[in-house]
Amino acid sequence: MIVGGIDIVSLTATLMGASTPVLLAATGELVAEKSGVLNLGVEGMMIMGAVAGFAAAVATGNPVLGFAMGAVAGALMATLFAFLTQKLLSNQVATGLALTLFGLGLSALIGKGYEGVRPPPTAKIDFGPLSDIPVLGRILFSHDWMVYLSLILVAVVWYVLRSTRAGLILRAVGESHDAAHALGYRVVAVRFAALAFGGALAGLGGAYLSLVRVPQWTEGMTAGAGWIALAIVVFASWRPWRVLLGAYLFGGITALQLQLQAAGYAIPVHILSMAPYVITIVVLVILSAIHRHGVQAAPASLGKSFHASS
C-alpha cells in the first residue's frame, strides 16, 4: 500500500524497530522515577551501552553477548549514579548531567578503535507461515527478538507496578521515602535496584542502536534519544502503556522522515531531522493537556534525597 510515495506497510513495520531504543530507555527510566529518583543520565547510559555492546559483539561474534554487555554497562553507570546520589547525597540533577557528559566522553574514547567495523548480524525470529500473512505478517512477524522483548518488558513493568508487592514497595518509596523507611523498607536498596534496572534497559537501548539500527559505531550516535526518553516518561504521566505510545510515536515519525527523504520530497533535510523530536514533544504535550484531569502526578519524592536519620 503506497500513499504519496510512502509505503505504509513498510513504514509501520519500520517504526517498531525505530522505537525500540527509546522504548527500552523510557521503560527503565519510568521504573527509576517511580522509586523517587530523577536520573538525567539516560543519554550517557545509552551511549555506554552502545559502545560496550558493540565492542563485545565484535570481540565474540555473538550479538546476544553484545546486548548483555550493553545492559551491564548501563547498569554500572546507573549504579555509579546511585552511589553518588543515594550514599553521598549529591544533587540528582547535576549528577545526572555529569553522568551524560562522562558517558559521551568515555564512549568516544573507547569507540575510536571500532569506527568502520561491522558487528555480527542480529537474526530476525522465524515465525514460519505467520511471516507470510499479507500486511500483518510484515508488520508483526518480521522483527528481531529485541523488538518483542521491549514489548514484553513494558507489560511486565506494568504488571509489577500495578499488581505485585514489589511494585507496591517501589511506589511507596517513590511517594514518601520517610513513610516507607518507617515501615521498615530499605529505601536506598530499593532505589539502587530500580536505578540498576533502569540503567540496564537504557544500555540495552543503546546496544540496539549500534548493533541493529545503524549498525555500526558512531561517536554520539544516540543523538538525543535519552532526552526524548526522559520527556516521554514525564508526558506519559509515569504510565507504561503511555510510554509505549510515546515511543512508537517517536519511532513512527523517525521512520516517516527517512521515507520522505527517500521519496524525494523537497523538504530541507534539517527540518526532517528535527521533526521526530519536535512533533513527539508537541503531541505529548497536547495529549497531556487533554487528559489533564486524569493525569497521574509525579511521585511525591521524585528528585528528593533520602536521609536515613530522618
Automatic annotation (TrEMBL):
Signal peptide: none annotated. It is found in: Cell membrane. Keywords: Cell membrane, Membrane, Transmembrane, Transmembrane helix. It comes from the Bacteria. CDD domains: TM_PBP1_transp_TpRbsC_like. It is a multi-pass membrane protein. This is ABC transporter permease. It comes from Thioclava marina.
